[in-house]
Amino acid sequence: MPPRFPFDNSYARLPERFFTRQAPAPVEAPALVALNRPLADRLGLTLPEDAAETARLFAGTTLPEGAEPLAQVYAGHQFGGWSPQLGDGRAILLGEVVAPDGARFDIQLKGAGRTPYSRMGDGKAWLGPVLREYIVSEAMAAMGVPTTRALAAVTTGEPVLREAVMPGAILARVAASHIRVGTFQYFAARRDAEALQALTDHVIARHYPEATGPEGLLDAVIGAQARLIAQWMGLGFIHGVMNTDNMTLSGETIDYGPCAFMDAYHPDTVFSSIDQFGRYAYANQPQIAVWNLAQLATALLPLLPDRDEGIERFTALVNGFSDRFDAEWHAVLRAKLGLATEDEEDAALAFDLLERMARNSADFTRTFRALSGDTPQSARDEFIDPTALDPWLTRWQARLAAEARDEAARITAMQAANPARIPRNHRVEEAITAGVAGDFTPFENLMQALAHPFADDPSVAEYEAPPTDEQRVLRTFCGT
Ligand code: AMP
Ligand code: MG
What we know:
Strand content: 5-15%
Structural class: alpha+beta
Order of helices and strands: EEHHEEEEEEHEEHHHEEHHHHHHHHH
Number of helices: 15
Distance between the termini: 33 Å
Radius of gyration: 23 Å
Bound molecules: adenosine monophosphate, magnesium ion
């Protein structure tokens, strides 16, 4: 008997032109690589006792009862260029489960075979990007960043042809929804106002029940994205492929392709091999968000009774992103610096530090973590020229002295804002290389080291180390 998940598939009840019903392709020899039990419990899933049966389930070879598998259609701007037809080309939505607390989640199998939206692709995934997404999305969740989650990873026992023959794999992904800016663009481009209205109603009911109409929705999404991107920036996270089809309406991070965390801080950092011009560089992310949100605003315009007046109101909302982002970003920076109160000089204080870090190739994570300890001077060790930090330390200490908060409370607060461990690229690569060779120990150890990123833990201190010159990862690849 296949297990029964608490499905309630509201997307499958939308008009048929929103998707194509499509079952996952059965796979040869599914084997379980990882299972996220706490997440399964949070969703209220009852899983088979047997690992082989669980593997078949998350490979899509056995369907849980109540699943209504489908591929969602969307469009999008990829690196600024318009693609009128994208969609789930290698992912199948099994359905939505309603957790015991009433929260609704998509369960999607990524790498589950061809769909009508696969274009030239094979609909498959290989183990590398599956492990990368598993590691990074779970680390983001552990650091409190809104994100899609990894429920399980399986290998399929089938070869996948990339630059070389690679082991096939599938990621069971969980999301508040998989609705993207590109989903709205798809219907707007087809002048399908009826579909746009249905999609708007669906997203409001699902994610922003307090919002009214397209304007309320746009406003809520702008707020959620401003918060999200401020959180990315605070962790040195570079998404790498912020196309409009990779930006969710829910405000969750999605699509961990060429993403990476910076080691040494520099605002122009880019890792993605396909981002030739640095469109999605670290410091460009807020501007790209505005660009994407302007596309969402454009897509929503047909729903407004008066187009000219609508353009004016939507333009004002989109332009408002930058102030809203700044407010979120400055709050993140104040938390990172242990400031409980607000002063108008705080942002300048933070930017002064960041500039010094950039000039001295200071490690982003290690510098902030060192400042969070009881010997903040040790942050000097992260700088090529340690004396470059001294004037800033003096300025920061003076600012801290102006607050009533005692030192222990400040340290506790700073340690909760500045992780000790992030998924460093060389560790992610190491886990992938070993996994492809059949050894999942480095993957498991890395997952364990990242489970409590804000806690000091000497037993996993090696994961705090920056890469050596030989270990440094210079390029990341879109994981298809
Ligand atoms: P991404 O760059 O991962 O956001 O994917 C962009 C588009 O390409 C989406 O429509 C994907 O579904 C599609 N795609 C990516 N990889 C594959 C693949 N291996 N097979 C089919 N479609 C794919
Ligand atoms: Mg995508």
